[in-house]
Amino acid sequence: MARRTLRDLLTAYKKGGRWVMSTAYDFPMAHVAEAAGVDLILVGDSLGQVVLGYPDTLSVTLDDMVRHAGAVVRGAPDTFVVADLPFLTYHVSDAQALVNAGRLMTEARVQAVKLEGGRRVADTVRRLVDAGIPVMGHLGFTPQSVYAFGGYTVQGRSEAAAEALYTDALALEAAGAFAVVLEMVPAPLAALITDALQIPTIGIGAGAATDGQVLVAHDMLGLYWGRAPRFTKQYADIGQAMEAALRQYADEVRTGVFPADEHTFSMEPAVLERLAARHGHPAPR
Ligand code: KIV
Q: Which of 71, 223, 246, 259 could disulfide-pair with 218, CB 3.0 to 4.6 Å?
């Protein structure tokens, strides 16, 4: 099979297909996401929280993203992979945004980048798109602005905020973004924006009317020990399964059950006998 292209994804969207996006941050998780048949993988800067142990996404660097996104691209050779541009890698200048997005495309070899914000980043989006870089937008609760928001809060509830979000979504579409993530947005507003746009919306805590959904893999798999957001759904308890397996391993090592004969290599007895005799050991049994 060949890697799915943006054209494949947009064709599916136009036929009414819902996009399924999951995050992944490394080779094994990418392999599993591809085997499960997700449409897109997002190497999110949620990496900072669920893999690197930071309290938020702000400390994630471009080097972190390049390394992890590269592993994901290698682990999911047939899936469309999008990587986040981290905090302050696209705000200083369009030229810097271009160079940084270029690293994700050329070093990690992702197929698209995602960045946060609406009208304030629209010119940057246009610049990247003009350079041939597919861009996914991200509106609503944008985690890189958590301190400006004053916490993890739903966005777009007041009339002014809803109007601003709606206008931001149109601005991203006009700038050439191929899709927009809507995070922690009231479901009716997400539905209205989805109706207004000709490009797909991907919801996370934004109700069922968006054109696709995304969840952080570690939240849905039970691999995160921080506070999971209310909008997530846990589909498995992989953390518990891993802990049980490691507990059994520890127990078997301590009681001598592991390693057994089938995990062990043998050698020619005569070689061992001569070695033992040369060094004064009793003859091996
Ligand atoms: O970083 C991330 O995982 C994201 C999703 C929450 C959309 O941006």
A: 223
Domain boundaries, the chain: 6-236, 241-278
Task: Looking at the CA of residue 181, tell me the nearest atom of ligand 1.
Answer: 7
Give the whole-angstrom CA distance, residue 180 versus residue 139. Answer: 7
Considering 183, 243, 262, 273, which one is annotated as catalytic? 183
pLDDT tens for 87-133 read 999 999 999 999 999 999 999 999 999 999 999 999 999 999 999 99
Does residue 216 line the site of ligand 1, with CB under 6 A? yes
Containing H/E element for 173? helix 159-175
State if pTM tops 0.90. yes
Which residue reads 């507003």 in tokens? 189
Q: What is the DSSP letter of 108?
A: I
The DSSP 8-state label assigned to residue 106 in this structure reads I
Q: Among residues 7, 51, 16, 38, which one has the least CA distance to residue 215?
A: 38
Atom 2 in ligand 1: residue holding the nearest Cα = 44
Which class would CATH give 6-236?
A: alpha beta
Helices 119-130/94-103 angle, 10° precision? 60
Distance CA 145, CA 135 (A): 19
The model's pLDDT over 248-278, given as tens digits with 9 standing for 90+, comes to 999 999 999 999 999 999 999 999 999 999 9
